[in-house]
């Protein structure tokens, strides 16, 4: 269950994370693709990603289990490190567009400019689940600080109304070895 809950949220954070104030106007995938193409590409190098879960709410889940899920990442968050190769950096943010195209997703709003991002995307799965992702924060070619929210609804299922809030920070910490 951990992968079902955290991977979509983390995936969105990592694809947008190295990517303003929103106009509440929906954008097409083509408009988002054009906006993303204007962004500076991330610099290659070694990065540290720290993810801290702020809130987990799953109706029907006992409070102690929700607290346990939140505490899996500790009070300061869980960090991982990875190497962003030049080849991956040269791709820029094309993964963002690929991921959105893989599902039935629409951008409720998307603005990434001036070192700030404000985005909301809604995706529908083949199982009747609807996921809404929101992201707000800052970015540069060497890192990002994001606040993210993920809400899921699935009629008739126990996870109806699932809500997760997280902070995800990415920072370039050096060259790859």
UniProtKB/TrEMBL annotation:
It comes from the Bacteria. It holds the Pfam family DUF3617. InterPro entries: DUF3617. Keywords: Signal. This is DUF3617 domain-containing protein. Residues 1-18 form the signal peptide. The lineage of its organism: Bacteria, Pseudomonadati, Pseudomonadota, Alphaproteobacteria, Sphingomonadales.
């Amino acid at each position: 269950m951990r992968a079902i809950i955290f991977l979509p949220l983390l995936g969105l954070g990592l694809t947008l994370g190295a990517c303003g104030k929103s106009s509440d106007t929906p954008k097409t995938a083509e408009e988002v693709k054009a906006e993303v193409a204007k962004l500076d590409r991330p610099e290659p190098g070694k990065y540290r990603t720290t993810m801290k879960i702020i809130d987990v709410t799953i109706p029907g889940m006992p409070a102690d289990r929700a607290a346990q899920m939140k505490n899996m990442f500790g009070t300061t968050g869980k960090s991982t490190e990875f190497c962003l190769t030049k080849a991956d950096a040269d791709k820029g943010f094309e993964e963002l567009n690929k991921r959105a195209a893989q599902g039935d997703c629409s951008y409720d709003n998307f603005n990434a400019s001036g070192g700030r991002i404000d985005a909301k995307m809604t995706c529908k799965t083949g199982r009747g689940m609807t996921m809404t992702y929101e992201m707000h924060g800052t970015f540069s070619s060497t890192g990002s600080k994001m606040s993210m929210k993920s809400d899921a609804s699935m009629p008739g299922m126990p996870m109806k109304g699932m809500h997760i809030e997280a902070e995800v920070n990415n920072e370039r910490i050096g060259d790859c070895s």
